[in-house]
Amino acid sequence: MRLALGLKEPGLVPTMGALHEGHLSLIRRSAAENSRTVVSIFVNPLQFNDARDLETYPRTFDRDIQLAEEAGADIIFAPTPALLYPEGFGTAVTVAGLADRWEGAVRPGHFTGVTTVVSKLFNIVDPANAYFGEKDYQQLAIIRRMHADLNWFGEIIGCPTVRDHDGLALSSRNSRLSVEQRQIAPIVPRTLFTLRDRANAGDHNAASVIEHGLALLAQEPSIEVDYLAIVDPETLEPVKEILPGSRALIAVKLGPIRLIDNLALLEPPQ
Amino acid sequence: MRLALGLKEPGLVPTMGALHEGHLSLIRRSAAENSRTVVSIFVNPLQFNDARDLETYPRTFDRDIQLAEEAGADIIFAPTPALLYPEGFGTAVTVAGLADRWEGAVRPGHFTGVTTVVSKLFNIVDPANAYFGEKDYQQLAIIRRMHADLNWFGEIIGCPTVRDHDGLALSSRNSRLSVEQRQIAPIVPRTLFTLRDRANAGDHNAASVIEHGLALLAQEPSIEVDYLAIVDPETLEPVKEILPGSRALIAVKLGPIRLIDNLALLEPPQ
Predict the structure, then answer these.
(1) pTM for the whole thing?
(2) A149 reaches B (C-beta below 8 A)
(3) Quick check: ipTM above 0.85?
């Protein structure tokens, strides 16, 4: 399928819709840095390993368009699945190593779905700059790797996570939390902040710092921890000693909802 | 690695060097159809499943440059392996189904190496037209699929196989045939021409036509047949009934050298 927007080096903000302040911060930054900004809205079936998650993924299209335009989007690209995946479609883009652990281990096929659709968007939009949130830190690392490995034109811009008043990282899936779950959820960022505080206070032993975080999470019985790790910011491999740039990654289940978050350690609070 | 030639919609002829009249026909066509033509010369280690084949692959770089320029190349892009595959490289582009059978079944990993490096070349060169020989018919079908699936700009142009006076398809690997083997090798195209003649004469039963071809090949004891098949020209799946466009594919071993060739059936000789 030949699809080309034909713009001169626009900014690109790929989204799955259900836009929140996190997305809008990406769109505003792109609008400030590029003469044109394309916002793609596509709930990509290829990256959902769980059919129920795909069904229940929040969809707020009319509102998304309004919010995106207010934030500075010039073009909304909202293709159908049939347009991006016509009959006979068979190509996949994969990133070995980086995509196998953490979210990749828990959600088989997820990152292949992400890297494949983002490859298509890169070719359709031909962006000078593409904006991704640090909230999905592993996704960002994988896309940086893929973008460099396959020599696409332009830059990948990672943007800081936007947090609610109580620290919870904004996520489209937060809308599916019950009122009670929403009150419990901030233990996730609180755990990360505690890890950062301990590292800044001089404890650079990753195992010791993680143990402390797990003890904190254990106080909340409705939280099930998928992983809490401290990793190299590029390879995402666990580190023994916390160094500047080392990143804490966390994934938990709270009822049926998975929450992920991450934080650079050995950096002062913003 | 950021690599961008920055040309305005050039033609691209990807090669592994050891240029022969087949390559030169692609370069001449590109030169006729595009204001600039880029010829890449890169013996891509990723697509060699056999280390000895990589070692012994013919390399005639100085001559290649001269021939390419005479044929109309404006730019020779001859990267080193370290430039295209720096440390940490981990991305692969794969095409399911199409790449699994025929050459894919015999040479595991081969087509992933091809599609990955061609993806890189598409992004580095940004061609309006990319030229590939029909000699490697499965490769051409896979690249067409990948190019459409990932929505690259531009067109894939398949070009007719160039044959020697006795019908043998030109191939860089032909230079490794002994004098004796070179005399035997034309049985490969002769078999294909026989299949085409039978189909044109009215025998459209694929199994019967293939059986005839295998009987012909069996007369030459030094030939070991990997496969002889009649397939759909797009999906490469075997057909029962030969239709216009149906393609005969053949791969044989002649001593240590593998020869492949293919021909559209139900078409008159050119």
Answers:
(1) 0.95
(2) yes
(3) yes
